């Protein structure tokens, strides 16, 4: 009985240390992606002098929002690294930023009203889920008792 618990403890420690190593590598990759995104945004600034203003601003806006979505992924990874769990609100924030990036790109396309309605419904659903996640978070429920 005691021996089985010791083996379970060793397996658990191995899993946790392996997850931390892999997560550290992931964080480095995310930081490199953020750096590349910032570099791309600055590189696209050259289009201001050459291209049509509408197209240039769309490109820059999508670049910046993509970097912000990657920052939200970094926040999720760091939260897991420090707390040992993933916060649902960070994931929802990441999805909202990504969807809003697509919405910004929609401004420059002809779309059917059904597609616009679906995107609006998706954003409203995500906002509702985020409100529920904050309202009923485990930390908040612990503080209420």
Care to describe what's here?
This protein is mainly alpha-helical. The protein has one domain. 88% of the residues lie in helices and 0% in strands. It has helices at residues 2-44, 47-50, 53-83, 88-106, 113-135, 138-144. α1 (2-44) runs antiparallel to α3, α3 packs antiparallel against α4 and α4 (88-106) runs antiparallel to α5. The radius of gyration is 21 Å and the shape is flat. The chain starts with a helix and ends with a helix. The mean pLDDT is 83. Keywords: Cell membrane, Membrane, Transmembrane, Transmembrane helix. Its main location: membrane. This is Phosphate-starvation-inducible PsiE family protein.
Structural key phrases:
single chain, 145 residues, mainly alpha, 6 helices, flat
Short synopsis of the structure:
With 145 residues, the protein is mainly alpha-helical. It has helices spanning 2-44, 47-50, 53-83, 88-106, 113-135, 138-144. Keywords: Cell membrane, Membrane, Transmembrane, Transmembrane helix.
Shape: flat
Strand content: under 5%
Gap between N and C termini, in Å?
A: 36 Å
Q: Can you tell me the number of structural domains?
A: 1
Query: What kind of assembly state do the chains in view correspond to?
Result: single chain
Total strands: the figure is 0
- Helical stretch tally: 6
Give the SSE order as H and E letters: HHHHHH
What's the pLDDT, averaged over the residues? Answer: 83
Membrane topology: Multi-pass membrane protein
Subcellular location: Cell membrane
Organism: Geoanaerobacter pelophilus
Transmembrane segments: 21-40, 60-81, 88-107, 113-133
């Amino acid at each position: 009985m005691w021996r089985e618990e010791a083996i379970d403890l060793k397996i658990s420690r191995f899993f946790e240390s392996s997850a931390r190593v892999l997560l550290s590598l992931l964080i480095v990759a995310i930081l490199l992606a953020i750096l590349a995104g910032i570099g791309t945004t600055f590189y696209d600034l050259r289009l201001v002098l050459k291209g049509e203003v509408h197209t240039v601003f769309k490109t820059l806006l999508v670049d910046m929002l993509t970097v912000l979505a990657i920052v939200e992924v970094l926040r999720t990874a760091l939260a897991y690294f420090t707390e040992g769990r993933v916060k649902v609100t960070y994931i929802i924030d990441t999805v909202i930023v990504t969807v809003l990036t697509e919405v910004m790109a929609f401004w420059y396309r002809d779309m059917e009203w059904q597609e616009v309605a679906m995107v609006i419904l998706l954003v409203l659903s995500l906002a509702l889920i985020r409100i529920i996640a904050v309202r009923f978070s485990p930390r908040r429920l612990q503080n209420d008792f």
